[in-house]
Amino acid sequence: MRMVDVIHNKRNGQALTNEEIEFFVKGYTKGDIPDYQASALMMAIYFQGMNPRETAVLTKAMVDSGETIDLSGIQGHKVDKHSTGGVGDKITFIVGPLVASAGVPVAKMSGRGLGHTGGTLDKLEAIDGLQIEMSKEKFINNVNKHKLAVAGQTGNLAPADKKLYALRDVTATVEAIPLIAGSIMSKKLASGADSIVLDVKTGSGAFMKTLEDSEALAKEMVAIGNNLGRKTVAIISDMNQPLGFEVGNANEIKEAVDILQGAKVDDLRELSLEIASHMTVLAGAFSDYDEARITLEANLDNGQAFEAFRQFIIAQGGDVSMIDDKTKLPQAKFHVDVTADEEGFVAEIDAESIGTAAMYLGAGRATKEDEINHAVGITLKKKIGDTVQKGDVLVTLHADSESPENSIKKVKQAYRFSSEHVDRPTLIHKVIR
Ligand code: URA
Fold this sequence. Notes:
globular; Aldehyde Oxidoreductase, domain 3; Pyrimidine Nucleoside Phosphorylase, Chain A, domain 2; PYNP-like_C_sf; 1,4-alpha-oligoglucan phosphorylase activity; binds uracil; glycosyltransferase; metal ion binding; thymidine phosphorylase activity
């Protein structure tokens, strides 16, 4: 088989055969197929698309290009969740213990953040001593014992995707739905869970800006998961503003703990319950969504979910006193209010700009080498639909400098006001099965 013929076939709009796709993924991973031919194929796929069979075969070939995690040592039906990324997304810290509190095992592999969205591991490291590197045995033992463990991704999951994603990034071919779906799902499938709940974000702060694109991506990912033997559900949730009120590492842990202690911050509690309910139903712990939801709401209110989080922190070596007394979490030196220059209703809060403002404070990384500052972050005081008078506080910046000008400017750019009443955005747009 010749790579030039594979490119030619896709360029002309033909569906590739299974053999052609496997030939490409194997050859590219080994280094036999050069970047220029892989780039040409990515561009052809960008324009011509892939059918569901092709996407599933591509995903499977990327899974098979590296290690897969064997979670068979964990008792019970293992569920995983994945978010396509958003600002203020601390859902894992709520959903993990919440699902664990219903007796369902969660074995979570997570990553670090780059750019305007923070990573799960970075946020967890706001808790002193918490270890995210551990042996496979310890990971499995922790899940068996506490129903929850979170570890850093091992280096060799879906190496074909790693190579291809880096190539797509510099050849303007990231935004092809079959390629995004295959990329995300290859890593999820290699991580070994039996069922997967996907939180596909939509809106200005999301990878997918329109509901139509988000739905297309969600459908592709659900089809791949189900085709490859994992029960998969996708929830399309809103990212037209940051999730909850806190952005930054310690800030987000604090807000997650508030929810685990029964706080009723509406969007955060609601989305966590939605995701956790689907996860526990897929795992067979409840017969239907309504039954799951009643128990899970109770577990947020009666302290069981919080206790599951405490046990997870202790098991991974973290200082649990920092969540028993949240004032012990890292604290920034200065708290700077950013106020409104006009009155009206909050119409937009560009989540990406808020994320960038937090990154300027030091909460995220601009380059891989940057050190994270766990103490800094942003507290939103006004969200979409709120009324604002001139001089009202929009956000408080928690900073290590007295006057974080770049972040102030970025936050002001993020807010847009309307003179007319604005409805709060719908949080959960659709559930795709
Ligand atoms: N995230 C991924 O892991 N892959 C993509 O292609 C896009 C987002």
